[in-house]
Amino acid sequence: MEELKLSASPDSDERQRRPPLLTLPFARTNLVRNAPLTRALRVLNAAAYHVDLFSCTLDEFTRISYKKYSS
């Protein structure tokens, strides 16, 4: 991956449905789809709906991440 892109817009708080915080690369292969960085971006996007990633503690982030992906 060459770069990571943020996709948050200034008016995202006014919308009911927010766009994902980080854009995921288009994966043509399973190798890219399941790469560690791609999986990390997916976890960050899922957690961003529940906590503020820029101000939460590691404990909060871990609790939300495990709750989301343990089911």
Overview of this protein structure:
With 71 residues, this protein is an all-alpha fold. The protein has a domain at 30-70. The protein has helices spanning 30-33, 36-48, 58-70. Helix 2 (36-48) packs across helix 3 (58-70). The N and C termini lie far apart (29 Å).
Layout: helices, strands, pairs:
Blueprint: H1 30-33, H2 36-48, H3 58-70
Helix pairs in contact: 2-3
Keywords:
globular; 71 residues
In short:
With 71 residues, this protein is mostly helical.
In round numbers, the mean pLDDT is 78
Sheet/helix structural class: mainly alpha
| Largest sheet descriptor | none
Determine the N-to-C terminus distance.
Answer: 29 Å
Percent strand: under 5%
Helix content: 40-55%
**Helical stretch tally:** 3
Order of helices and strands: HHH
* Cα gyration radius (Å): 13 Å
List the quaternary state of the chains.
Answer: single chain
